[in-house]
Amino acid sequence: MATPTDVIPPAPGGGAPLPPMTFTAPEGFFALPLAGTAEERAALADTFVRELYSRGDESIWTPAAPYYAAIAEYLAQSGLAYSAMGLFSTDEGGVAQCAFTVAAVETDQPDPDIAAQGILSALGHDPLNDARWMDLPCGPAVSCVTLREIRLGPDVSATGEEAGFRTGQIQVHVPFPNGPYTAVFTLFTASLDYWGEFCDMVVAILGTVSFTDPMDATRSASSP
Question: For residue 26, which of 47, 54, 4, 6 has the smallest C-alpha distance?
């Protein structure tokens, strides 16, 4: 089942934490163990590999955990607040995959409407971008869809011949309503046969984004 995800993005430049942000991640997302210390990453990585390889055993989990902990360290240092692998069974018996990340970037514009207008203008200059305005429950946003073809040389392709495959990326910029920052949600996939489903999934996630502290609602509900 889908679970709410509390995210406090690290402030750019290592400053104080940004205001809290929450969204609901769908079933099938396996969140990478992003954490502030090596000990926390190691513990989260152990849980992560057991969930990801639920039919495995210690022979798989033990070597895999440090690998994912190292990836998580790199992603956290890159400023990501959340990163997950999406794995979904298909009707044909295969698996559709995607990568999903959330980051926060600092801007010089505290007004979310003006910030979104500037983002839309900047992204719209690239003819390969399909940039559009979005009105989300949490405020204005800008989506940007790009489709690319990646070419592989014969030395790295499975057939020994030059080959190519297509990838798609959905990136949505959501300005914070309470500070000069923008949350950036990115989904990347090479499973384009399920592109429509992935687009619907991103829209569903964005509908759950909130910039209010969940503890505030809890405190309000408990107040006489």
Answer: 4
